[in-house]
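Q: May I have one protein plus its fold?
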Amino acid sequence: MKDETMTVILAGGEGKRLSPLTDNRAKPAVPFGGKYRIIDFTLTNCLHSGLRQILVLTQYKSHSLQKHLRDGWSVFNPELGEYITAVPPQMRTGASWYQGTADAIYQNLYLLSRSSAKYVVVLSGDHIYRMDYAPMLKHHKETQAGLTVACMEVPREDAGAFGVMEVNTQNQVIAFQEKPEQPACIPNKPQSSLVSMGIYIFSMDTLVEVLERDAINAQSSHDFGNDIIPGLIDSERVYAYQFGGAEGRVSQDAYWRDVGTLDAFYQANMDLLAVQPPLDIYQPDWPIRTYEPQLPPARTVSSATGNEGIFINSMISDGVVIAGGSAQNSVLFPRVSVNNAAVVINSILFEGVTVEEDAHLENCIVDKHVTIPAGTVIGVNKKQDAARFQISEQGVVVIPSSYQFPEVDQLK
């Protein structure tokens, strides 16, 4: 599979709805789950699925992402024809940046043409899920499809937020609608619809032909969902591959999330704290790979006043020290410090955050390298919080990276 398949990961997303977490990094580089970056899940799927020729198309504020690829994903051997290569816009087809998902690959067709690959796997670098792509590729070959689209079944009333695939009884796609008001249902399942996950396998000839045709279409938005898929249905064999089946090596939790908003990102992290998490990151033979610095183990310690450091139903990463404070139902990234009598509840603290004594955080996301001053209360009084921080629709307070509190904080 290695020599006949090339993988392209679209990782240039700006992620405006995740601001301020994306103010200084691309969406795929946003930290997730206590130790990972969002793109780690897609790259891990590739690693375990035997996909070893990977192009990562970057664009927006890509330094953090490229550094992470260098530090955590230099695992393949180029002498064996294996690689993970970051590809920024080359402007080989004109003076523009990537104008859409399809245009991003069109601008790099020269890289595909230099390979001997017969198939191209196109993935997004900003979704949280675990999937073995090998059975999907096998299905693509067996059906002799020009395009196979990974889909998941959702209740019909929820399908309007996605691209909906209308299929026949053989799962061949006969129509595609982007965010329809009346979604098509699955044959013999009137209450369910199949929605696209943004995971595609193309036969190489089909991909080259459709991208070259799309590039000269002045009316096209150069997007896979809006333009490429609808344009292929009448001329090519397009099949839906249903996510969450019994095939493949990954345990089928059938979890997939587009963490494109602050609330979706927050909830996906909180999902990991459930008694039985809907996303299984503990499968022994499907470890999620990432970059891990050399840090001491996490620890709790009593403060000088006798308060015990405690954490309850929380994820605690290496280098975390809870010294007389407490963390409850929270996700703490490396090098976080929670000091005497400080309380962290229902919150996500990125690397290097310090919570000083008597501070109180609730329903917060705190980006890297922030010190919460002693006695500060955040997440309790929405009016006060809104005066200085962004608050999500569901009330999550987000403190941007390296935020500096006033020396005398008037909003404690």
Remarks:
- The mean pLDDT is 91.
- The first strand starts at residue 5 and ends at 10.
- The chain has nine helices and 29 strands.
- The domain at 299-399 is CATH 2.160.10.10 (UDP N-Acetylglucosamine Acyltransferase; domain 1).
